[in-house]
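== Folding task for one protein ==

=== Format: two labelled lines per protein ===

==== Paired sequence and structure tokens ====
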Amino acid sequence: MGYTPSPAGFWKRYVAYFIDIVLLYIVVELLSTLFFSFRAYSQSDELMNLLHSLRAGSERGETPDPYALMQTLETLILPSLIFSSCAYFILAGIYFSWMESSPQQATLGKRMLGIKVTNSDGEPIKLPQAIGRYLAATLSWVTLNLGHALAAWTPQRRALHDYVAGTRVENVDPKNIHMPAWAWVVVGLHALVFAGTCLLMFFAMWFYMQALTAI
């Protein structure tokens, strides 16, 4: 009997990825907080001098130089932002590559949704292929998520990075292809947040235009 794939649906992949990102975000935020605290402690004298100068200037009725203030804050905040980005890239690479090449063939999010990563023949992938898949996901991001959206309408439900890496995302149990109810709740909440954000942006733009016409 030949290999019959059971491709995982787009929304299964979406919810699984959301769960993984939340888990990674918690770890990265903890590390970033520690890094930021260390930076703040190591530059405490500079920060105290900045606060004293701002207070003294305020007492004299002087307006602080925004450029100098931004330069001082940049020396503290920018390294923390760079650290967060690098920490996420490295930790996510280890997490996705290691777990998708493990015997379970799935991250924690994928396991919760009952899906796994295979090669084009339905077999488990090795670590080098898993690393390649993670790096290839960059293409799906730089195409403004169109690479990810391919998983919604291609017959094999493969994203751009799946085609590049020669992988698939399939259901663990081909007889159980439906997404659990709680996962649909997650999708619904995301849709509400997206709709709410669009409404806020619309009304903000409308009020802004009204303010311009009133000038």
The first strand starts at residue 115 and ends at 119. The radius of gyration is 24 Å.
